[in-house]
Design brief:
By secondary structure, the protein is α+β, with helices and mostly antiparallel strands. The protein has helices at 2-22, 64-70, and strands at residues 24-28, 34-38, 48-52. It is elongated, with a radius of gyration of 23 Å.
């Protein structure tokens, strides 16, 4: 168990060193994540792109516009007040599973456990006799 923790710390230190020595800051998002790019690896033509998360490394904290940039879907760096987001779009929300804000459908025991009564328009299938 301690060995895994030590390796986890070392990988964080390596990432911070790599970022400090070879990374060029590109931008940040509303969650405080900072995005970087660096020289291409040998044999590839495109630059390397990565993110340093503000808190826990949680991929669902990356907004869609930055996800597209990280995965080379676009070379346009998202701006802080970008026109990418439309007024009718809901704001980006990270994965809320296992948090106190998780969604539970009606009838789930964690949401009160009360289901609506059946309306009678459903007929259960019965195998032929």
């Amino acid at each position: 168990m301690a060995k895994v923790t030590v390796l986890g710390v070392l990988s964080n230190i390596q990432m911070l060193l790599k970022t400090a020595l070879c990374g060029k800051r590109v931008g940040a998002d509303q969650y405080g994540n900072v995005y970087y790019k660096g020289k291409p690896r040998g044999g590839t033509a495109h630059d390397r792109r990565w993110v340093l998360y503000k808190g826990n490394a949680e991929a669902s904290l990356i907004p869609p516009e930055w996800h597209g940039w990280l995965h080379y879907q676009t070379d346009a760096v998202p701006e802080q007040n970008s026109r990418y987001r439309k007024s009718w779009q809901k704001p980006h929300q990270p994965n809320l599973t296992a948090t106190d804000k998780a969604y539970f459908p009606p009838g789930d025991s964690r949401a009160g456990g009360q289901r609506r009564h059946a309306t009678g328009d459903y007929v259960a299938w019965q195998p032929p006799q």
